[in-house]
Amino acid sequence: MLAALRDRLSQARHVLVTWDGGCAPDALQHLVSEAQASVAAGGRVAVENVERLVLSAHAASSFDAVLLGLAAGSIAVHCADVLAEVARILKNGGSVLLQEPVDPRGAVVASDSILPSSFSWH
């Protein structure tokens, strides 16, 4: 995963790393350090609790990449409101790296209500 993270962030100038109550502090610090080492020269990394993301004052289209649920121990299940906020604060052409605990018996449904027209599921 770290190689993919480095590759995705190598052109990013502003990255948001999210965390939740399940993340171990040392795991979060490791992820933030990896992100800081991977961003483009002069880039910066912001850290936000995923439960507070919708309440944050981040400007629209302000991040080149958003990392959700990547810190070891993350237990967050990202609701539609969080994903809509990520779509709002992500720059056009930006990247979302998302890891989520899932029940393999459940179905995943893509909702058009949270995707701007410039996004697509792959």
UniProtKB/TrEMBL annotation:
Domain Anamorsin N-terminal: 14-104
InterPro entries referenced in this protein's UniProt entry, alphabetically: Anamorsin_N_metazoan, SAM-dependent_MTases_sf
SUPFAM superfamilies listed in its UniProt record: S-adenosyl-L-methionine-dependent methyltransferases
Short name of one Pfam family: Anamorsin_N
Designated name of the protein: Anamorsin N-terminal domain-containing protein
Species name: Eleutherodactylus coqui
